[in-house]
UniProtKB/TrEMBL annotation:
It holds the Pfam family CbiA. InterPro entries: CobQ/CobB/MinD/ParA_Nub-bd_dom, DNA_Partitioning_ATPase, P-loop_NTPase. Transmembrane segments: none annotated. It comes from the Bacteria. This is CobQ/CobB/MinD/ParA nucleotide binding domain-containing protein. Residues 5-93 form the CobQ/CobB/MinD/ParA nucleotide binding domain. It comes from Photobacterium ganghwense.
């Protein structure tokens, strides 16, 4: 059974493309058959695939862009993959709406910033409309690009609290602001694919935690538990 995951929001720059790419790399490295669909006319992920082609030894991910409707594309490739990850644009467009209606999960990516939190009523409306057609859609929020200073923990907790009030189930996993996300994206890699001298183990752990929690239901606090 394939799973369709839309990574979206109604704001740009929150880290949707970066998150979608890193999830795709992580799942593919674990042996899953993965498609990554770029639904954003800004083409961030399409360009990432172009960079990626320059490296021969990276894990295989199939890339798609819609030529007609996003719905037709998702339906046609669903039987071919274990996971289909859709990188949606940062606004309420037709592609994102069609993807929401045809998805199993929606991952909302937000920064712990007022500007992103202020967009929640609009996301609520977009998702509410989509769920009239797709009532089984599972929704989670990833708080991304967090400041790792201990004094900033409250901002992250406050952002989670607001997301909870909308029923957008914030993940226990949070992703910090780390340069390796930017550096890896620039040359078509995920953080799990960086050469040894450029690796960032904390970023790698965050990506693994995200996939474990979102897709396999294993929260960071459950890891290491034996009973
Ligand atoms: N956790 C992070 N730490 C550092 N930089 C990040 C992180 N997440 C995303 N970025 C960077 O922020 C910028 C915007 O991210 P992007 O994924 O393109 O956003 P969106 O798709 O939501 O518009 C990119 O340069 C990306 O590499
Ligand atoms: Mg993007």
């Amino acid at each position: 059974m394939s799973e369709v995951i839309v990574v979206g929001s109604v704001k740009g720059g929150t880290g949707k493309s970066c998150t979608a790419q890193n999830m795709a790399v992580c799942l593919a490295m674990r042996g899953h058959n993965v498609a990554l669909v770029d639904l954003d006319p800004q083409k961030t992920t399409e360009e990432w695939f172009v960079e990626r082609r320059a490296h021969l030894n990276l894990v295989k991910i199939s890339g798609y862009i819609p030529t007609g409707s996003a719905e037709d594309l998702i339906k046609s490739i669903r039987p071919l993959y274990d996971f289909i990850i859709c990188d949606a644009g940062g606004y309420d467009g037709a592609y994102q709406r069609e993807a929401i209606i045809n998805a199993d999960r929606f991952l909302l990516v937000l920064r712990p910033k007022r500007r992103d939190l202020k967009a929640l009523p609009m996301i609520d409306e977009v998702l509410g409309r989509g769920m009239q057609y797709n009532p089984d859609l599972k929704i989670n929020t990833l708080i991304n690009q967090c400041n790792p200073l201990p004094t900033q923990v409250k901002r992250i907790l406050d952002a989670k609290y607001v997301c909870e009030s909308y029923d957008f189930s914030p993940l226990q996993t949070v992703v910090m602001h780390r340069n390796v996300f930017d550096d890896s994206e620039e040359n078509g890699r995920g953080v799990l694919e960086m050469p040894d001298d450029c690796r960032d183990l904390k970023a790698e752990a965050e990506v693994n935690d995200l996939v474990d929690e979102l897709i396999f239901g294993i929260r960071p606090s459950d890891k290491g538990k034996v009973a």
